[in-house]
Amino acid sequence: MQRVLLIGDGARENAFASALSYLRLYALSSFINPGIKKIVDSSGGKYYIGDINSQEFVKKVKDDVNPDFAIIGPEDPLFHGISDVFYQEGIPVIGASSKNSMIEKSKTWMRQLMWKYGIPGRLRFKAFSSIEDAAKFIMEYGGSVAVKPSEQVGGKGVKVVADLQAYLSQEKRLALSKSVDKIGELVSDKVKVIVEERVDGPEYTQHVLTDGQSYLPLPLAQDYKHAYQDGIGPETGGMGSISGPSSLLPFITEEEYEDTFDIVRQTAKAVERETGEKYKGFISGQMMLTDLWGPTVIEYYSRMGDPETSAIIPRIKNFGEVLIRAAEGHLNKVKPEVVETSSVVWVVSPLGYPLDRTIARGKRIFVDVKKIEDFGCQVFFGSTSLEGGQIITQGSRALELVALGDYNEAVKKLERCVSFVGSETRLIYRTDIGKSIDDMIEKAEIIRYSYKKRKSKGTLGISADWSPNGGMW
C-alpha cells in the first residue's frame, strides 16, 4: 500500500484525505483536524502536529514517514519552500516550488508576467512602494480601480470603487484613498500596493493540475467570498462554492472554458520560463467574465482554492488516482471520471469570523456526521481542532457541508443538513449559495454580447484610456 504524506489542516486537506482514504495516509497539521484524523487512523497512518511552514520540521516528518509521495494543500508552506524539501530529495510531491508559487504570492509579479508574455485576460495595473503615492494616483486618476496589497495577505484588503459619475469623482477618490490607508494596516513597509483597472462580471475558478508535461483542467467552480447573504459584508476566504453539472458552470460556455484553460496553461509555461523550473502541482485562475476580455484573470493560486476544492473533489470518482498519476509524472495516463451532477458547498463559521477571530476561537462545535451523511451531505472539517474528544473552533471557517444533485436539490439537502451542526456560539452561514443561477446566466449573456462585439472589431483588452506601456498607466 502506498504511503502518502498530506500537509495542511483545513477543509481542502480533509477533501484530499477523503480521496486518498484507500492509501496509508500520514498527515502533518498545525492542529488535529477531526476529519483528517479519522481517515489517518482508519488507514493505519500517523498524525503529526507541528509547524507546517518549517523546512526543518517537515524534513523530520518526511524521514519518519518515508512517503511514496506528498501533497501540500495550503499556500503558506509553498511560499516557505516546503515543496522544495521533497523536490531536492527526489520524492514526488504535488505542490508548486517556492519560486513558482510567486504567481500567487505577488500580484505585481503576476501582472508583470502576463504583460511580458502577452497573455490574454490581463488587466492594467500600477504598483506602488508607498501608501501615499498610491493614494495620490487614485485621486488624480479618473477611472474605476481595484486596490489590493501586492502580496498574499489571506484574501484581506481588496477594495473596489467604481467612479461612474464624473461629478462625484472627487468624493469617490477621497473615499478610495481611505481604503488604501486601510490596506496599509495589513501589509509591511516592503509590500507594494497594486492598483488595477476595475472590471465586473460573474466570477469562476479554473483549476489546472500539471506534472510538468501534461496539463489537466478540472471542472469549473465558483467561490462566494462575502460573509453575508446576497454577497454583502466583508470578504472572507470563501463562504461557499458551486460546481457543475458538467465541466462547465451554467453561465460559462465551452469556448470560454477552453479559452480559460489556455490562459492558465500559457501562464504556467511563462512561469517556467521566468524561474527555470518545471511547474508541478496546481495552478488555478480566479477568473471573471468581463466585457473587456471575456475570460479575465483576477488573480492566481499556486494550489487548489478553498472552498472550491470541496465542490470539485466529490464530483471526481477517481481523484485519488489523478493525484497519484500527477505525482508520478504520468498525468497523461489518467482521465478524470466526473460525475455529471452539480455540487453546492455551504461554509459554517463561528461568530466573529472574519473580522474578529479572537471571538471566533475556542468555541465548542457539535456535528452529527452520521445524520448529515444519512441526509445526503458530506462534511469536511476546516478550522476546528480535536481536543479531549471535543471539536474546538480555531477562529476561521469551521466546516464545509457538501451536497450533490441539481442545484435546487442540493440546496434542499443542505437546508436539512445544516440543522445537525450546533455550537455554544452563534454560527454564520449563507443559505443563498446555489440559488439565483438564472441571474448569473442573464448577467453572463449581457457581458458575452459585449465582449464578442469587441472581439469582432479586434478591440479585446483595449480600454478607452488604454496605454500600451507594459500594462501600466
Number of strands: 25
Helix content: 25-40%
Number of helices: 16
Report the principal-axis shape.
globular
Distance between the amino and carboxyl termini: 56 Å
- How many domains? The number is 3
- β-sheet strand percentage: 25-35%
Mean pLDDT reading: 91
Residue stretches low in confidence (pLDDT < 50, at least 5 long) are 155-176
What is the name of the CATH architecture of the largest domain?
Answer: 2-Layer Sandwich
TL;DR of this structure?
The chain is an alpha+beta fold and 473 residues long. It has 3 domains: 3-95, Rossmann fold, CATH 3.40.50; 124-197, ATP-grasp fold, A domain (Dna Ligase, domain 1, 2-Layer Sandwich); 203-428, ATP-grasp fold, B domain (D-amino Acid Aminotransferase, Chain A, domain 1).
Please tell me about this protein's structure.
With 473 residues, the chain is of the alpha+beta class. It has 3 domains: 3-95, 3-Layer(aba) Sandwich (Rossmann fold); 124-197, ATP-grasp fold, A domain (Dna Ligase, domain 1), CATH 3.30.1490; 203-428, 2-Layer Sandwich (D-amino Acid Aminotransferase, Chain A, domain 1). Helix content is 34%, strand content 26%. It contains 16 helices and 25 strands. Strands 12, 15, 18, 20, 23 and 25 form a 6-stranded antiparallel sheet that branches. A 5-stranded parallel sheet has the order 3-2-1-4-5, with helices on both faces. It has a 4-stranded antiparallel sheet with strand order 6-9-7-8, sandwiched between helices. Helix 1 packs parallel to helix 2 and helix 8 (131-140) runs antiparallel to helix 9. The longest helix is centred in the middle third of the chain and has 22 residues, at 254-275. Mean pLDDT is 91; it is low at 155-176. Pathway: Purine metabolism; IMP biosynthesis via de novo pathway; N(1)-(5-phospho-D-ribosyl)glycinamide from 5-phospho-alpha-D-ribose 1-diphosphate: step 2/2. Belongs to the GARS family. This is phosphoribosylamine--glycine ligase. One of its GO terms (molecular function) is metal ion binding.
